[in-house]
Specification:
By secondary structure, the chain is an alpha/beta fold. Helices cover about 40% and strands about 15% of the residues. It folds into two domains: about 5-130, 3-Layer(aba) Sandwich (Rossmann fold); about 150-290 and about 320-345, NAD(P)-binding Rossmann-like Domain (Rossmann fold), CATH 3.40.50. It binds nicotinamide-adenine-dinucleotide.
Length: about 350
């Protein structure tokens, strides 16, 4: 479909900001998808992209995903996302983070950042020297804040359990086999929760040492990253990067459940239909992985404590069940049901109609 500006993933984004500082080697994009429900919130991804178009696509898709995620989690936030274009070595400097923080500050609160792939709590501290529009900062004494990863993992684990209940009729993952894609922040937390409940784990990461270390920790096994999605397993849990559910990988799936924390798992909207047509239960990514942004939101908005964060994360399974129930009744696939719900919440039609004020 032809879209304004010619970007296939442009979805009436409210603003796109390109940040360039040649002297210090900083190139970044801040994509503001929607501020209908509040400031556009979403993490910063630090990644080496093949080209600029890939980075822009990522920013456009991830920021729309954040609008949907924040709306579906009931948060007073819109959706945005930033990507910093890393060099091949993935090295970053305090000067780059400072310049990036200043750029966020210039937006005056239109965009609020936090951690995403390749960004740490330490990086957020650097950014926070330049702007107050940042969360995911360390806090003392049990206050809400810090790395969103463990909260995302907890929500994903609860979502996996909900999927297991619905598809397999079981109350626990004990004895079930989970094929985990990724061994990073989110994947590790999922693995630890699942192993503690007696699940068997097979883990794949393009960083094989990372996969091995996590497998050792949870008494699991490792697999080739190319094969992980097609393993004989009860649950496939994509917890690495996006666009991994394609025509081809969906055809190769053998597990009855796909439930994981990675953003933008579906390569195209049609892939939601393809999974559904194969009778596989899919947990829409931005619903199951909202735990981290729930923590970030509670930190930033200051509207609750750690107990409330937990309570909000524990509501993720309910939302998934609502989506699956509507899908079962209406015949539409869960991803399409979730998209329709989210679009309604942010005041947009299916074609990305800008909000009517
Ligand atoms: P991370 O950087 O800690 O881990 C990502 C891991 O994926 C790395 O170990 C990397 O080597 C691995 N990887 C990359 N490509 C791979 C491939 N093709 N096959 C196997 N492994 C591969 O990042 P994270 O914070 O754990 O995030 C993982 C996913 O979850 C991302 O899609 C992120 O957007 C999403 N997510 C993260 C959070 C959060 O709170 N951190 C919240 C919501 C969603």
């Amino acid at each position: 479909m032809q879209t304004p500006w010619g970007f296939p993933d442009f979805d009436a984004h409210e603003a796109l900001h390109f940040i360039t500082d040649r002297a210090i080697g900083l190139r970044a994009i801040i994509a503001v998808h929607s501020t209908h429900l509040g400031p556009a919130a979403g993490g910063t991804r630090f990644w080496h992209y093949a080209d600029d178009a890939e980075a822009l696509t990522d920013a456009l898709r991830l920021s729309r995903g954040m609008s949907y995620k924040n709306a579906m989690a009931g948060l007073p936030l819109g959706g945005g996302k930033a990507v910093i274009l890393a060099n091949e070595e993935h090295s970053k400097t305090p000067e780059q983070l400072a310049a990036f923080g200043k750029a966020i500050d210039h937006l005056g609160g239109q965009y609020v950042t936090a951690e995403d792939v390749g960004m740490s709590v330490t990086d957020m501290i650097e950014i926070a020297r330049q702007t107050r529009f940042v969360a995911g900062l360390p806090v003392a004494g049990g206050a809400v804040g810090g790395d969103p990863g463990p909260h995302t993992s907890f929500g994903v684990f609860l979502g996996i359990k909900a999927a297991v209940k619905r598809a397999l009729g079981k109350d626990s993952v004990e004895g079930l086999h989970i094929a985990l894609q990724g061994a990073g922040s989110v994947a590790s937390g999922v693995a630890l929760h699942a192993a503690a409940e007696g699940a068997k784990l097979t883990i794949a990461d393009i960083d094989s040492a990372r996969a091995q270390a996590l497998a050792t920790q949870v008494n699991g096994e490792t697999a080739d990253p190319v094969e992980i999605l097609g393993l004989e397993a009860d649950i496939v849990s994509p917890c690495a990067l996006g666009a991994i559910l394609t025509d081809e990988s969906i055809a190769a799936l053998k597990a009855p459940i796909v439930a994981g924390g990675a953003n933008n798992q579906l390569a195209t909207p049609e892939d939601g239909g393809r999974i559904h047509a194969r009778g596989i239960l899919y947990a829409p990514d931005y619903v199951i992985n909202a735990g981290g942004i729930i923590n970030v939101s509670t930190e930033y908005v200051r509207d609750g404590d750690a107990a409330l964060v937990r309570q909000r994360i524990e509501a993720i399974p309910q939302r998934l069940e609502q989506i699956w129930a509507e899908s079962a009744n209406g015949g539409r696939n869960p991803a399409a049901v979730a998209d329709a719900m989210a679009q309604q919440l942010i005041g947009r039609g299916p074609e990305g109609t800008p909000p009517t004020v």
